[in-house]
Specification:
This protein is of the alpha+beta class. It contains five helices and five strands; from the N terminus they run ββαβββαααα. A five-stranded mixed beta sheet has the order 2-1-5-3-4, with helices on both faces. The longest helix has 14 residues.
Length: 156
């Protein structure tokens, strides 16, 4: 059985890949016990499984675990802790930006990636960065307020 080694949340992790074509999402959830990334559509269209690979937001349901070898993977668990959440996580909490919470992982990870690229994005930039993350509960306005809060943008 081949072993795939990657850096997950800052630590080198080995995954015994019974199938190197297996989605990275399955390895994160089943092998490493990281459950923030959710299985949504399995087609990379909903964003629930978003993680950062080498700083870029990607849909972990469409990335083969074999292709993640040697790369830096960050999941929501690697952003902060309950006692010291990442600024984006703290902003989502402050703005009550989650209803059912299923989309929250993807929204947070996409927001983190946006703020790494554009520290003070416009509302339109935030909307574009989050356009691929589906939310059926309708919390989009609170999510956008959370991005603004994390960026330090004052609302009128």
């Amino acid at each position: 059985m081949p072993t795939v080694t990657m850096i997950v949340n800052g630590a080198s992790r080995n995954i015994d890949a019974w199938d190197p074509d297996m989605p990275l999402l399955y390895a994160l959830r089943n092998d490493l016990g990281l459950h923030a990334a959710k299985f949504g559509c399995g087609l990379g269209q909903c964003g629930a499984c978003t993680v950062l690979i080498d700083g870029a937001p990607v849909r972990s349901c469409t990335v083969r675990v074999g292709d993640a070898g040697g790369r830096r993977v960050v999941t929501a668990e690697g952003l902060g802790t309950p006692d010291k959440p990442h600024p984006v996580q703290a902003a989502f909490i402050a703005e009550q930006a989650a209803q059912c919470g299923y989309c929250t992982n993807g929204m947070v990870m996409s927001s983190v990636a946006l703020l790494q690229r554009v520290p003070r994005p416009s509302r339109e930039q935030a909307q574009q960065a989050l356009a691929g993350n589906l939310c059926r509960c309708g919390s989009h306005d609170r999510v956008l307020r959370a991005v603004e809060r994390a960026a330090g943008v004052k609302r009128a």
